[in-house]
Amino acid sequence: MTDRAVPEASGTPHRVPAGARSPDAGYAAARLALLNEEGQPGPSRRATLADLTDRWLTGLFPTRPTGTALVAVGGYGRGELSPRSDLDLLLLHDGTAGTREVSALADRLWYPVWDLGLALDHSVRTPAEARKTAEDDLKVQLGLLDARHIAGDPAITAALRTAVFADWRAQAPKRLPELHELCLQRAARQGELAHLLEPDLKEARGGLRDATVLRAVAASWLADAPREGLAQARTRLLDTRDALHLVTGRATDRLSLQEQDQVASWLGVLDADTLLRQVYEAARTVAYASDVTWRAVGRVLRARSARPRKRFLGRGRVEPVDVERVPLAEGVVEQEGEAVLARTARPERDPVLPLRAAAAAAQAGLPISVPAVRALAAAAPALPVPWPAEAREQLVTLLGAGQATVPVWEALEAEGLITGLLPDWERVRCRPQRNPVHRWTVDRHLVETAVQAARLTRQVGRPDLLLIGALLHDIGKGWPGDHCVAGEVIARDVAARLGFGRADADTLALLVRHHLLLIETATRRDLDDPATVESVAKTVRSVECLDLLHALTQADALATGPAAWSAWRASLVADLVRRVAGLLVGEAPPGPPTRELSAEEERLAVEAARTGAPVLALRAESEPVAEDGTEPVGVELLLAVPDRPGLLPAAAGVLALHRLTVRAADLRTADPIGAGLVTLLSWRVAAEFGSLPEVARLRADFARAFEGSLDIESRLAEREAAYPRRRGVPAPPPRVTVVGGTSQVATVIEVRAQDAPGLLHRIGRALEDAAGVAVRSARISTLGANAVDAFYVVGLDGTPLPPDRAAEVARELEAALG
């Protein structure tokens, strides 16, 4: 492995002193040998690299310094030198030497560093200049707090360190709020390390930058971070960054997907998922310590600015008044903005106290104090199994607090209380989700789903079952196989543990087993097909369960991410629920769909039959954004064209050329004036970029495509060549299946593939090429980078395909897409 050369950042060339441009081959060889040593990265290798670099730089420094010193700051100052870390160096001088002499000394030091291709962050200052720069720049201030003498006059370094720490402690009441605000802004930009698939190990919330900030807060003497596990978490993040540097050969902090397996191997970790879980664990420890520390800083600063409360006893005598403690629940009080244990609390005798304290804190919108959580973790006895009713009610109360549940849950989890209460939680804790649609790890997604479900408890008859179902719906993701099937078994066990009766356990098991039923059916199946509604009704069995499943579906999707829920999806699910509810309350089941044309569809069909040309209309929905943040349904595109083969792939190709994303598609035929069949294609579309295309341009391209003069394949290929998409992690191959028992009027063929421009056009072409197959309707669904499309196909006689023929069509389609 060789070091990559890093060019000098300055645009002003330095004068090169004689003999200063010969790199020290001994240091370079020793450095390379150290980085190529067998074994995992760790603190000893970082310290050895820093010591090796110290000795090399000391050899470059004059043997008789006069008021000058070379000082390491930042990570190098802490003696933590990663393989591709910058050398953060400060050349300190007392101002007695001339400018030319100081400049020559700087050249003597900086040029050998550049010659070896090492990244260098350097400065030349007097102690007064260093202190003034630190006063103006918090980043410089934090770096100087880790200042370490390397060479030269140690007295000048020691004096600077003393002054810098004195300045920091004196200015802490003013500077710490500024530092906290910078941390919040950085977290908003970079996200939470503990939930990112490609995290920035340094800048994301819970990363190395936050760990450095905690050292600075401790140095202010105003507050200190919880120490348990913090050093190990920081070491884990540093080791991961070291391995990332060695794998990539670059000074990067971004743990990209394509490098995770190699980094895991370098660290001796089983696989990339195990690596991410360890990184997430470390990030949560740092993030939790940060939250606790900043709350402590806030309390100290408020106490300093507030006038002390006193009680007057008469004759000039006063005594201080204790901090106010407001009761929240039995054994729990509020003190200084936190939920703490009451003086009369006896956690060793009260197994329900952890849940009671957590529920009271969340309902009051308060964090629970670290000493309280630790006392509960150390002393509270285990709950009996099954749980007493109070414990179950307190868990439901905690989950029903909405967003305030999250920090309280994290506090309990940090001290191991959650896995003590729910042992099955351990398998999903910090478990990454590789699907980019998900914004959270599995465990945090479960909590966030409960947060969303708390907003919907007024819509169901059993809010307790909704909240517990939300907490458990993905609990099976920690086990092999279908997580819905595994989750059903776990849900029954947990329900028994919590003390629910058999009927409630059956309901919870149904919610977990079928939590994807409504969204998948609504977006991938034909709701006009009687078999669709009947199959859902048979599964849910009652209106009460249907309402619970409807609320859970919405909460799950909202907690997943923006791509999982929209007004369009909400409308489809609501339509399905309405139909199923009608069937469950005894309404006559729907017969075969009549598919009567609307006035607009009839007008377009008549015009197409009369002119023999395609006719279309774009109709934007005026629906406002919903309170839950879902987007409007979008735009409906109606297209009528005289019936002919190849309409679906041609129409889909035109939409792809105009960068229109298809959300749903429906096809039907009519003979409005007795002059021949007209095909009606109804699309739900959205512009991929910018605004919608002009109707006239769309109509012209549709006409050219249908008459065969528009070469769609060539146009799509040209656009792909001109604007190639970035190649990331290889996608799994497409999968095509025949879904049996879901329709009485057609054969349902489901396609799962990586979404890409023109995908629907390719699918349509492949289906049209399969002789004797016609597409009756389609359900198009895109989740992140994955397309899940269902096509209702029939033979030339209008009936479903025989099973053998259906399987053959599926194989041909999969081969065409592969």
From TrEMBL:
<feature type="domain" description="ACT">
    <location>
        <begin position="748"/>
        <end position="818"/>
    </location>
</feature>
<dbReference type="InterPro" id="IPR002934">
    <property type="entry name" value="Polymerase_NTP_transf_dom"/>
</dbReference>
<feature type="region of interest" description="Uridylyltransferase">
    <location>
        <begin position="1"/>
        <end position="327"/>
    </location>
</feature>
<dbReference type="InterPro" id="IPR003607">
    <property type="entry name" value="HD/PDEase_dom"/>
</dbReference>
<keyword id="KW-0548">Nucleotidyltransferase</keyword>
<dbReference type="InterPro" id="IPR043519">
    <property type="entry name" value="NT_sf"/>
</dbReference>
<comment type="function">
    <text>Modifies, by uridylylation and deuridylylation, the PII regulatory proteins (GlnB and homologs), in response to the nitrogen status of the cell that GlnD senses through the glutamine level. Under low glutamine levels, catalyzes the conversion of the PII proteins and UTP to PII-UMP and PPi, while under higher glutamine levels, GlnD hydrolyzes PII-UMP to PII and UMP (deuridylylation). Thus, controls uridylylation state and activity of the PII proteins, and plays an important role in the regulation of nitrogen metabolism.</text>
</comment>
<keyword id="KW-0677">Repeat</keyword>
<dbReference type="Pfam" id="PF08335">
    <property type="entry name" value="GlnD_UR_UTase"/>
</dbReference>
<feature type="region of interest" description="Disordered">
    <location>
        <begin position="1"/>
        <end position="22"/>
    </location>
</feature>
<comment type="similarity">
    <text>Belongs to the GlnD family.</text>
</comment>
<dbReference type="InterPro" id="IPR010043">
    <property type="entry name" value="UTase/UR"/>
</dbReference>
<keyword id="KW-0808">Transferase</keyword>
<dbReference type="GO" id="GO:0008773">
    <property type="term" value="F:[protein-PII] uridylyltransferase activity"/>
</dbReference>
<dbReference type="InterPro" id="IPR006674">
    <property type="entry name" value="HD_domain"/>
</dbReference>
<feature type="domain" description="HD">
    <location>
        <begin position="442"/>
        <end position="552"/>
    </location>
</feature>
<keyword id="KW-0511">Multifunctional enzyme</keyword>
<dbReference type="InterPro" id="IPR002912">
    <property type="entry name" value="ACT_dom"/>
</dbReference>
<protein>
    <recommendedName>
        <fullName>Bifunctional uridylyltransferase/uridylyl-removing enzyme</fullName>
        <ecNumber>2.7.7.59</ecNumber>
        <ecNumber>3.1.4.-</ecNumber>
    </recommendedName>
</protein>
<dbReference type="Pfam" id="PF01909">
    <property type="entry name" value="NTP_transf_2"/>
</dbReference>
<keyword id="KW-0460">Magnesium</keyword>
<dbReference type="InterPro" id="IPR045865">
    <property type="entry name" value="ACT-like_dom_sf"/>
</dbReference>
<keyword id="KW-0378">Hydrolase</keyword>
<dbReference type="InterPro" id="IPR013546">
    <property type="entry name" value="PII_UdlTrfase/GS_AdlTrfase"/>
</dbReference>
<dbReference type="Pfam" id="PF01966">
    <property type="entry name" value="HD"/>
</dbReference>
<feature type="domain" description="ACT">
    <location>
        <begin position="636"/>
        <end position="717"/>
    </location>
</feature>
